[in-house]
Every structure is written in structure tokens, then in C-alpha cells.
Write a structure and sequence with these properties.
The protein is of the alpha+beta class and about 270 residues long. It folds into two domains: about 60 residues, no CATH class; about 170 residues, Sulfite Oxidase, Chain A, domain 2 (Alpha-Beta Complex). It is built from four helices and twelve strands.
Length: about 270
Amino acid sequence: MSDTRAGITTLPVTDTVTDSPTQDLLLTGSMRLLCRRNISSLMHKSTMVILITLALLMVLAGCALPSGTPGGPRTLSPVEIRSYEGQDLSSVNAFRENSIRGPQSVNITDFRLTVTGLVQTPTISTYEEILGKYPHYSKVVTLHCVEGWDATILWEGVLVRDLVNDAGADPRANTVIFTARDGYTTSFPLVYVMDNDILMAYKMNNVTLPAERGYPFALVAEDKWGYKWIKWIEKIELSDNAAYKGYWEQRGYSNTGDLDKSFFSR
């Protein structure tokens, strides 16, 4: 006979009394347990399918876009170049350490470059402001040290002339004095930086200046001896003191520092 209690159909059982209430209850309980197990198994399998699908999507997303770079590829660190337009370049490490107080560590967040002295509008700029405001230029220039070694580098930077023009040179100014973080100073006739493309560099051979090379800014004083290539520049001052002498100039080095002449003053 057919029993449809609780929505479950009890099938006939051979050689048994099918009208027994106890038998019906046992069969009904067994069927309920079996259904519950089947439902639980299906739910478990569905959950596993969802988790596996999500994992595959995350893996595929990780292959398409590098971690931590939404919307595009991650920019890798620049690599030093060793040749430029067919010209061999020296390594950024091809320098001897001869600064007066050792390499300087500059906190770029606190860094400020001041253009002051005989100017119409003194300026104080952060590192990012300088890089964002002024045009960038690059050129290959060789540094010649009085110790007898040299290094040919592709320098990238901003023109000192642009910085001076932005501040506005006073007509009385005839000299530009550079001051470094370590207290080192040197000077040039104002016409030298105004009539030539003199760079204040922030890169060399396509990489940011290392601390040893003058980060954040170093002067590319082309046609001058190496002691005029001041590093860790913090201040540019316009002056009317044409006789000003910097650190090594006070110690007997030539004030002009011209490469085609002796570096000793006479």
C-alpha cells in the first residue's frame, strides 16, 4: 500500500506487514536521514566548486596584473646604462670618495633648495617641485679630477639658468655661490651659468643620483676641474663679490677652475 505521510512515499516491503506504524516510522526516518546527507553532500560540493573557481580567478588576475598595481603593469626600477649614442659611459661607481665630510644622507621630505641673495624674488623649492616645474635636459659630460682620474657620464637635470631666471637676477649680481649640505662651497661668474647649459643633475646614466654622487642635486660644471662639481646642493646665492673663494679655493686652488689651466692658483 502507499503511505504519503510527511510527504514521503513508503514502498511495499516483501514478506512484511506494511501496515505497521513502527515500520513506517523507521522507513520515514531513514529516508529523511538519507535526504539530509544527500543535501549536505551537494552543498559541500557546491561550496568547493565556488572556492576553486574564485581561486582560479585570483590566479588569472595575478598573471594579468602584477600584485599591488591596479589598472596596469608595475614600473620597475631604472637600470644604469653604460653607453649612449655609441659612446661608452663610465660606471656610476667609477668615482673616488673625496668629499670633505663623507657622503651626505638627505631626507628628501625635508629637503629645500633656496635661491637667494641678489635676486628679485627668493625661491624655496622641494625636490618634487623642481622636477615638476623646470624642463629636463640630458648631456654626456666628463668629470676630470685633480687626482688624475675621470668619469664620463650621461647626466640628466635642470638648467641652473632656469632657476636663476625664475628668481630674477639683480643687475648688481656678478657671481653665483653654491652651498652644499656638508658646508662645502664654490663659486662661478654669473655669466658662466647664464651663457652655458649648466646642469644641476638629479640622474646619472639613467638612475637617480646615489648619495655618494650628491643626491638630490649635483652640479655638472663642464669645462671645470672636479672640485667645482659641488654635490648635495642646498643653496644658490647670487652675489656681487667676484672675489669670493670657496672651500678648496681658500686652500690654494684656482678660483676659476678652468680645465684647460692648472688647478693651482698663481
